[in-house]
Amino acid sequence: MVVVTKQKGESEDKLIARFKKMVMDSGILQEARDRQRHKTDAEKRKDQKKVRAASIKLEKKRNR
């Protein structure tokens, strides 16, 4: 759960921006999206395979 309290002299816009950042960093929205639809084991493996492939590709790019 994300709790944000207004700091002295802070505008509402800054407060909302700080709240949004904390929510994004905590992963709450991503978890909610993941729970909206049940994924089969095959879909989960496929997603993990994509993540691994992307990280390998990024690592190769960094080592050049």
Secondary structure topology:
Elements: H1 12-26, H2 28-36, H3 41-62
Q: How many H/I helices? A: 3
| Weakly predicted, low-confidence segments | none
Tertiary shape: flat
**CA gyration radius, whole angstroms:** 18 Å
Straight-line distance between termini = 41 Å
Q: What structural class is derived from the secondary structure elements?
A: mainly alpha
| Number of DSSP-assigned strands | 0
Number of domains: 1
Task: Please explain how this structure is put together.
The chain is an all-alpha fold and 64 residues long. 72% of the residues lie in helices and 0% in strands.
Properties at a glance:
structural constituent of ribosome; 64 residues; flat; ribonucleoprotein; mainly alpha; single chain; Small ribosomal subunit protein bS21
Short description:
The protein is mainly α and 64 residues long. Helices cover 72% and strands 0% of the residues.
